[in-house]
Amino acid sequence: DHPFKVLMDEDMEQLVESIKRNGVMTPATVRLKDDGRYELISGHRRKKACELAGLETLKCEVKDLTRDEAIIIMVESNLQRSVILPSEKAFAYKMRLEAMKRQAGRPPKENASPMATNFSKGRSDEELGELVGESKDQIRRFIRLTELVPEVLQMVDEKQIAFRPAVEISYLSEEQQYTLLEAISYNDATPSLAQAIKMKKFNQDGKLTDEVIQSIMEDSFQLAAKVPV
Description:
Layout lengths: L9 H13 L5 E5 L5 E5 L1 H9 L7 E3 L4 H12 L7 H19 L19 H9 L3 H9 L5 H8 L5 H7 L4 H14 L5 H12 L5 H17 L3
Parallel strand pairs: 1-3
Antiparallel strand pairs: 1-2
Helix pairs in contact: 1-2, 3-4, 4-6, 5-6, 8-10, 9-11, 10-11
């Protein structure tokens, strides 16, 4: 369930050339699975670069790790990359938060918060926020993106839909999101934050029909049509 993409970009080209000249400077990290195979934890880009460089082996360090420990290391190592897509952060934060909560054990019964655990600060989202340099609210916003259908999430990665409107859209059902995609295509416009909040509110009130989505999106089309050329 590795959420990070291995992109064939300029950085990959440079890594391939570096490996051809100098080999792999830092070993990848793997763990031995119960079936006798090895699972790659960190070093996915190095592995691909080795393949492109024509190498048949990759130097690896084998670590004795549980699945949750492996998830945490995988997320930590990949968050050091210079460019991280919103979708990558979203699924990485979700995976790491779930792993942290499992490691911490069940929260005490008197703590009613669904995000709470036995961490020193009481909330795993706060602990994760401190570790990655994000507020707990921002952590939760990123995790909301995992509720988006793939087509909408790709538009977020490609910066066609802004982050905050995308968070509000994540509260719509899968069917409603696909209706929104049709409205986006028809009106040649993506929802603003105000429009996304409006759709979320209609949805919470049980009034977000296909017609309402189209009507809200037509507002942006009409506004654009009035802008002087």
